[in-house]
UniProtKB/TrEMBL annotation, chain A:
<dbReference type="InterPro" id="IPR000515">
    <property type="entry name" value="MetI-like"/>
</dbReference>
<feature type="transmembrane region" description="Helical">
    <location>
        <begin position="402"/>
        <end position="427"/>
    </location>
</feature>
<keyword id="KW-0472">Membrane</keyword>
<feature type="coiled-coil region">
    <location>
        <begin position="234"/>
        <end position="261"/>
    </location>
</feature>
<dbReference type="GO" id="GO:0005886">
    <property type="term" value="C:plasma membrane"/>
</dbReference>
<feature type="domain" description="ABC transmembrane type-1">
    <location>
        <begin position="314"/>
        <end position="524"/>
    </location>
</feature>
<feature type="transmembrane region" description="Helical">
    <location>
        <begin position="42"/>
        <end position="60"/>
    </location>
</feature>
<dbReference type="GO" id="GO:0055085">
    <property type="term" value="P:transmembrane transport"/>
</dbReference>
<feature type="transmembrane region" description="Helical">
    <location>
        <begin position="448"/>
        <end position="475"/>
    </location>
</feature>
From TrEMBL, chain B:
<keyword id="KW-1003">Cell membrane</keyword>
<dbReference type="InterPro" id="IPR017871">
    <property type="entry name" value="ABC_transporter-like_CS"/>
</dbReference>
<keyword id="KW-0067">ATP-binding</keyword>
<feature type="domain" description="ABC transporter">
    <location>
        <begin position="8"/>
        <end position="242"/>
    </location>
</feature>
<keyword id="KW-0547">Nucleotide-binding</keyword>
<dbReference type="GO" id="GO:0015112">
    <property type="term" value="F:nitrate transmembrane transporter activity"/>
</dbReference>
<dbReference type="Pfam" id="PF00005">
    <property type="entry name" value="ABC_tran"/>
</dbReference>
<dbReference type="GO" id="GO:0005524">
    <property type="term" value="F:ATP binding"/>
</dbReference>
<dbReference type="InterPro" id="IPR003593">
    <property type="entry name" value="AAA+_ATPase"/>
</dbReference>
Amino acid sequence: MKILSSIKYPLLKAIDISGLTFLSPVVRLCYGEEPSVQLKKIGQWIIIPVAAMLLFIFAWNAGSGLIKTKAGTLPTPGETADALGSINTFADREDLKKEAYNLTGEERLAALAVAEAQLASITPKVQETTDAVAQAKSEHEKSIAVVVEPLEKNYDELKEKFSQAQDKRKQELESVSETLVIGDKASYTKFLDLVKANESQTDAEKTELSSLKAAISDARNDKSKKVALALSMQTKVAEEKQFLEKQIEQLTKRNRSIMVESAETNISTTTEELYQLTGADAYKKARSIAKDESRLEKTIESKYAQPATLWYQVRRSILCVFTGFIIGAGIAIPIGILCGLNSTFMAAMTPFIAIFKPVSPIVWLPIALIIVGGFIPDPENNAVIQWLWKAPLIDIYKINPAFIASAITVALCSLWATLANTALGVASIDKDHMNVARVLKLGFWSRLFKIVIPSALPLIFAGLRISLGVGWMVLIAAELLSSSEGIGKFVWDQFNNGASDSFAKMMVVVFVVGFVGLILDRIMIVFQRLVSFEGSKAAI
Amino acid sequence: MKTQSKFVEISHLVKEYPNPYGDDFRVIEDFNLNIKKGEFISLIGHSGCGKSTVLTMLAGLNEISDGGIIVGDKEIDGPGPDRSVVFQAPCLMPWMSAYGNVMLGVKNIYPHATKAQQKQIVEHALSVVGLADSMKKYPSEMSGGMQQRVGIARAIALQPKVLLLDEPFGRLDSLTRMELQDVIVDIIAKEQLTAMIVTHDVDEAVFMADRCVMMSNGPKASVGEILEIDFDRPRDREKIFKDSQFFAYREHLLAFLEQRSHIKDKARIFSDKSTLGFMSEQELHDFQVKLGVPPQPAQGH
């Protein structure tokens, strides 16, 4: 009990600093503090937002069917959740394949046995699901035929009837035209009216026919839910079978230890053969051994070439946004401080800030790509890039020129908020504090580091927080354009992919981007509160 | 070497601000005052008369328009640690502890002292003002009175030639105010500091100072009258507040202030064309009627 009551206020303080204030009434309620007040707050800050979310999901579910395009219907929340599931399944399977590639000895054999058993159990299902699809399709076709046949019959009859009527009218008009007398204007006017009436009659008949035709094609295209379900089951099973086959391959002939072993045996046999040879043959043999050996070395060092999963792309995007953010802050904070300290410098910088601030990331990115490409024409032979590919922790992210260009774009678009806030923070330093500094005769540097920067810090961090938010938005667009592996590229790939669940996967990305952005913002709020002091301008 | 009676010499001090509608606006004109070493001066007058202006000029924070100030043989030029200031607001850096705030100045003024010596100076200053136990506290954790104690500690840690107090207790409640008055009086007695306090509290002016300088009303304010306070140091609050002489001094000061706030003074201000030169004759008349100032016959200046 004592421990519980002693952590109450530290807990509340932590909640306050992290900005998760909606949790504090829950904590207070747990400690029995004014239950009615806390319940009211919980109602306001937890129940109402949750209810609003549920309402939104309900409206989304109801409304998604209404938005139909050629590319597909807006996915429902359920389909979006399924897409998230398939993204996760893909990621899990890739991890299993990677594991399979690296397994050796007994473990490899055990994993192989499991995978083969799974494959054996799934193989009959493939036929079952294929049959189910065929059955569902034929049933559906029958049900369509019931609707379509009378419609088609109706259509044919109408078409016949209309064409006969049209011919008849044409003949009548032609006979009227024979009776026309030159000079009798009234008869011409009458004839013209008759022709016009005939044309509009023909148009009306055409419209009727085409609407009937549309109804027929609608009936034909009517998608059956049963067929869709059967198809998705079939795809699921087929995908799982394909995965298991691939996994077995990674456990057997594409397994690293197996490949190394076979290469070693191969080398030892050819070496034995070499001992029996002389002359040109010996040279040939020796060369092939040397080649095999270097290949073996590469195999030993090799890693499973894993395709990018969404979660890998999310991590790479976060790395990229922080790279850009740090570059931006590194430029913005010193310039902002100089602007705040010196109005002449501020005046000199104003045109640049005013002109470059509104420039879109779409403009910066190609420029950054060209410049980075100019410095790093060949990443394979660039010392810095090679070092980054081997550096611990970040080696798996394969930092390439597109990544650097995206980060620079993020920096260029996001630095303005930090710059403006830093300049404001430095310029609006409390005059009393400056008077103290004057009386104490502080030098430039101690004035800067002891008074100016600490007092501007809350505003600087408020700026950094805005910058990180802007940077995150800009980055997704930059990745989409630069094809830098990341969330933006995932969206672009889905857009070009056009698979049945691509649309739903893009909806998943909406939430993933939003959620990561929220976390980044929360992190910055914590930092901002930690550097804020009582009475500071940016304190929230 | 100057005599002890002229440790601080303020002569023909003028402060003027530019006035876009006429002649420059003179707040202070021909202010003369000599301060002896170890003497405590209180500067009293109506609010807005320029007391604080004189003090900030002495501190070097406010530019001197004309005249000069000499502190111990040297004419002042800008602010410096030889004239440390206790401001009306404590002006502490909120991101530093009490210790850090005092150390900020000490480190700069005694750059050649060892770390241990600097620490000793800071700790001494803080314990003198009664904060020996609160050195690690941050301003947000301290009351206004405690914060002002830190402000005083920061000022005396510099071991200034002159200690300047700019309405230091203006924002404190009367109990805390008395406590801090005693703190200052004790320090002054112990360290033999020369000091000047700006105040509009008559009791404070009499209790703390050796001489009360009463300022005439602005604009063009200068020394109106000087009252010698003849109490022994160190001063004992209880004894002094029972002394009949104390009340005599107090009455004297109050009489001066009351006389200065007399309606005639207002009339002088509001008929002065140099201050209200942007108004036409008629406007000026209307304005004076509005304020209840008896209209004066136009006077040259």
